[in-house]
Amino acid sequence: MRILAFALSIVLGPASLLAEGRSELEILRARCSEQERQIRTLETDIENLHSQLALERRRARGADASARSAAPPESVETFTVKTGDTLSSIAHRYHTSVDTLMKTNGITDPTRLRIGQKLTLPEKASPPKKLLFPKPSRSSKRS
Q1: Strand, helix or coil at 112?
Q2: What is the count of structural domains for the chain?
C-alpha cells in the first residue's frame, strides 16, 4: 500500500503540486498578511506601554519632588566634591555612612560623583575636626 501511494505521488506529483501550488501560495499570503496585522497590533501596544511608562515616571518624579519639598530639611550643611573625593572618603570625613549620603542625595551609583557636585550632608554628620596647627606645605621647605 505504501509503495503504491509513493509511486502515485511520484507519477502524479508534479501535476498535483501545480494544482496545490496556487492554494498553497494563497495560504502563505493569508498567513503573511495575518502576521503583518499582528505585528502592527503589537507595535501599537508597545507604543502605548511606552507612553504609560513615561507618564508613570513623570508622576513618580512629581510625587518625589513634592515629598522632598513637604519634608522638613534633614540637613543643613553641603559639601562640594573635589578631585579625588569618593563617597566613602566623604562619609569617613563627616562620620556618616555611604548609604546615608546616597539616600540623602538621591545617588544610585556611588561611582558617578562629579567634580563640583554639591552633596547635602545629613544633620547627624559631624564636620571634620579642624587642626590647631596647619600641616606644613611642601613649598615652605628651607634650602
Answers
A1: coil
A2: 2
